[in-house]
Design a protein that fits this description.
The longest helix is centred in the last third of the chain and has 12 residues. This protein has four helices and seven strands; from the N terminus they run E-H-E-E-E-E-H-H-H-E-E. The chain is an alpha+beta fold. 25% of the residues lie in helices and 31% in strands. The strands form two sheets. It has a four-stranded antiparallel sheet with strand order 4-5-6-7, covered by helices on one side. Helix 2 packs across helix 3. A hairpin with a 5-residue loop joins strand 4 and strand 5.
Length: 145
């Protein structure tokens, strides 16, 4: 089970050493790798347990192609292959085979309507650098708090 953490601060720049400590605390949740990311206002930490896409291209925190959207995600989206096919038909290009990247492209196309389409267990945080908006979501039953 992966581990996610992060915070937003509109007053003081996000402290990268704090994010690194958050990431280390989650090491037991994801033994395969850990990374942090910040843009100054928002920062994410992620510990990864590789399951679906084992490649480095599926590492998190993950961004879309232009770096506008950033995500940390824990869980599994059972219908991600179907959603990926829909997104490919809409013209999206993928760098990985991960369900995380499907979430990014799905949010690009459908906004928060994406969450109605998801089947699975998940918790995620998605940061939009342009609108400076944080979206936090979890599955309907809260299996991945």
């Amino acid at each position: 089970m992966c581990g996610i953490a992060g915070y937003v601060d509109f007053q003081t720049p996000v402290d990268e050493p704090t994010l690194q400590r958050m990431e280390r605390v989650l090491e037991h949740r994801g033994p395969d790798e850990g990374k942090v990311w910040t843009d100054g206002t928002c920062g994410f930490a992620h510990r990864r347990l590789r399951i679906i896409d084992l490649s480095p291209s599926a590492a998190q925190p993950m961004s879309n192609e232009d770096g506008r959207l950033w995500i940390v995600f824990n869980g599994e989206i059972y219908n991600f292959r179907h959603l990926r096919e829909e997104l490919l038909k809409l013209g999206h290009r993928f760098r990985s085979r991960s369900d995380t990247e499907v979430l990014l492209h799905g949010y690009e196309s459908w906004g928060t309507e994406l969450f109605k389409r998801l089947r699975g267990m998940f918790a995620l945080a998605l940061w939009d650098q342009v609108s400076r908006q944080l979206v936090i979501a979890r599955d309907r039953l809260g299996k991945k708090p």
